[in-house]
Write a structure and sequence with these properties.
Blueprint: E1 2-9, E2 31-32, E3 36-37, H1 40-51, H2 63-67, H3 71-76, E4 78-79, E5 95-99, E6 109-114, E7 117-122, E8 128-129, H4 135-138, E9 145-151, E10 159-164, E11 168-171, E12 181-183, E13 185-187, E14 199-208, E15 211-219, E16 223-233, E17 237-247, E18 254-256, E19 259-260, E20 263-265, E21 280-281, E22 285-289, E23 295-299, E24 307-314, E25 318-322, E26 343-348, E27 354-361
Parallel strand pairs: 6-14
Antiparallel strand pairs: 1-17, 1-26, 2-7, 3-7, 4-8, 5-9, 6-7, 9-10, 10-11, 11-12, 12-19, 13-18, 14-15, 15-16, 16-17, 20-21, 22-23, 22-25, 24-27, 25-26
Length: 366
Amino acid sequence: MIDRRSFLATGFGWLLAAAAPAAPVLQRATLLGPPQPFGFDRLVKLAKATAGETYRPPAGTAADILSRMDPAAGQKVRFRPDYELWRGQPTRQPVSFFHLNRYAPQPVKIYAVAGGMAREIVYSTQYFDYAGTGLDTRLPADAGFSGFRVMNGQSSLTDWLAFQGASYFRSSGSEDQYGASARGIAINTALSTTEEFPRFSHFWLSEQGQTVTVYALLDGPSITGAYRFDAVKNDTVVIQVHAELFARADIARLGIAPLTSMYWYGENSRAPSVDWRPEIHDSDGLSMWTGTGERIWRPLNNPRTLQTNSFADKGPKGFGLMQRDRDFENYQDDGAFYNKRPGIWVEPRGDWGEGVVQLIEIPTED
């Protein structure tokens, strides 16, 4: 059983975060399936039972079509805001849904939870504007969603929390800019064997006051899990995460609270004339607060070959990937706004015991 609390602050509008203007029509409603009992205890039992079953890779009925999808065509497909979940309810934060695409081709099941009952959000092509791409006629009628995002209030075109692809999730923070992301789990990262990417296959969504609660079922060849994310956005975004994990097989390297960020070059590693921008990165360092109270800052680097650094610790108080440099002049990019990219800070709840904070740097030329 793992608990953690992640702080996601400041922020870059991610690739699929645009929304079409609302059509001047009466409020439409998402289609909901029949109610069924739901609670976190039921999710834990489901995750445990799933771990005892043979792993079945997700069925990708539209994989061939999506693999040939032109990225430009994929960008034209927009969710219609008038179909947002909880739209028109002043005390709720509406939720919209991501369409499948070549980079996120696996569908997920999404449910709305209220009063201890869950109802599936039934997929329909009517939720999307396909902008003449013809994808609505080529894809199966039950293609499904690739994820979801929580909007910044009623009638807003921007979002602050999104889940899409494998077990990835991220927040735009207080400055409405996406950047670094988090994952539910990491399996065998940077080993000689292929890295495993378990995925959140099912989501259950609930809201109570300012708190958005996301329940998720993790499923992969080596592991399953039941997750609960309680997210609140104020000056920063605070997400309390509770996970109960069940191994299907032996795992060589297990990563708890993994973070992913982009680093091309910075003030400590800029190659001459590589690009007109002085620095390009989502984060500029790894910050650690050790179990003994020591504060450590490790600047990020773009190495020539894969590089791994391990910082042994016992009962860590916190760690995270941070963008400390907030000065626009050091980036000079008024489209990507790297100076507003979010830092992600993790504080373990309880004693995690002995382990390592591991930094894996993968070389890039772009």
